[in-house]
Each structure stands twice: as C-alpha cells, then as structure tokens.
Design brief:
Elements: E1 2-3, H1 9-18, E2 23-26, E3 31-34, H2 40-50, E4 60-61, H3 65-69, E5 72-73, H4 76-85, E6 90-96, H5 102-105, E7 110-114, H6 119-127, E8 132-133, E9 135-136, H7 148-155, E10 161-164, E11 175-178, E12 185-188, H8 194-200
C-alpha cells in the first residue's frame, strides 16, 4: 500500500500496471481496479479479482480524449459531451476500433470510456502512456465500498498495489451514456444527473 499523496506513488503505480500487475486506485467517484486495458491477461485478472462474470464489459480510463480516440470512435454528440463533462464522472459508450481485448468489450463492438478529474489519476497519466481498466473496486454484485478500510480488507493480497486516498464521499459512480444510439441512451444515472444531461441535450 502507498499513500496517494506520496510523490513516488504515480510512478510506482505506473510501473505495476506496465508490468502486467493490478492496482486499486482512487477516482472522483469510487475506487477503481486498474490494469492495462490493452492486455487480455491483465483484464482477465481484473475479472478474477472482482469475481465478475465474463460477458460483462468493463470501462476504461484515458489521460484525455486524444488517447481514447485511438481506441473508440467519437461522433459529434460524444465529442460535445466530452467537452462539457470531461474530466469528470461521465462514462461514454462508443464504437471501438478493434484494438481492445474481447474481455473488455465482451464482443459488443463497443467500449465504455472516461477521463477522470481525480488528482491522483491525473498524476498517474503523467507517468503512464496507455489506458487502464476502471471497473469499481468492489466484489461483483456487492455494494460500493466507500471506506478505505473496506477497500483494504477486500483487496489486500489480491492485487500488487493499493493507493490510499482515504475515505471517499458517497457516490453513485459515473453516469453512463451510450452515444452509439439515436437519441443517446442513459444506461445508468450516476453523479451527473439525468436532469443535467437532459438540459445539455
């Protein structure tokens, strides 16, 4: 475990991810389980650690829209939403370009992507030049874990590194919008409300 405030934490976390390891890291919504999004083996470990059934796609984080454009197709609506709400708690479901492991997309031809505003994630991507998985750090089907001791007790010994950013405020997670449909479909209302999105559209 390492404190998120430790100056060496981002480089250490990046080294773990680059070597195929798995980290638990904070975002502005929930803690996430992070591994190389481009690696089938690393993604498989995330599924195993979380107890998530294969066939359920998992979201990924990128440094910015430029990094994510290499993996997914941004249409006009998606670009507008990203400009308005990124970095922040909005996950966009977009057509993927065939560069991601099948485990990540579950064979749907789509990928869920986001840019996080959390200070640690920003520092992490100063050290890391590839997207990471961003599924919530809890056991599949379980409640969201907001207290750090719950995170630690659940994942200690199962991952290579846990980044301690303390407890996090109550969160419903990121809001998920499928922008491949017309009109876009709100799959899950999270910290960005349905009303905010309706006003935007």
């Amino acid at each position: 475990m390492i404190k998120a405030s430790d100056p060496g934490a981002p480089r250490r976390a990046a080294s773990v991810v680059e070597s195929g390891g798995v980290i638990i890291y904070p975002t502005e919504t929930l803690y996430g389980i992070g591994a190389l999004a481009s690696s089938e083996k690393s993604a498989g470990r995330v599924f195993d650690i979380k107890g998530r059934p294969h066939g359920s796609p998992i979201p990924i984080l990128g440094r910015d829209i430029t990094m994510l454009e290499d993996l997914v197709e941004f249409n006009e609506t998606a670009a507008s939403l990203a400009e308005k709400f990124w970095p922040g708690p909005l996950t966009l479901v977009l057509r993927e370009k065939g560069k991601l492991p099948a485990l990540i997309t579950a064979g749907t031809g789509k990928a869920a992507v986001r840019v996080s505003a959390h200070p640690f994630v920003i520092r992490l991507f100063n050290e890391l030049d590839c997207p990471v998985t961003s599924t919530s750090a809890n056991l599949s089907g379980g409640d969201n874990l907001l207290e750090f001791y719950e995170i630690y007790d659940t994942f200690n010994g199962k991952v290579e590194l846990i980044i301690d950013s303390g407890n996090i405020p109550p969160s419903k997670g990121s809001t998920v919008v499928d922008v491949t449909t017309t009109p876009p479909e709100i799959i899950r209302e999270g910290d960005i409300t349905f009303r905010e999105l309706k006003e935007f559209f």
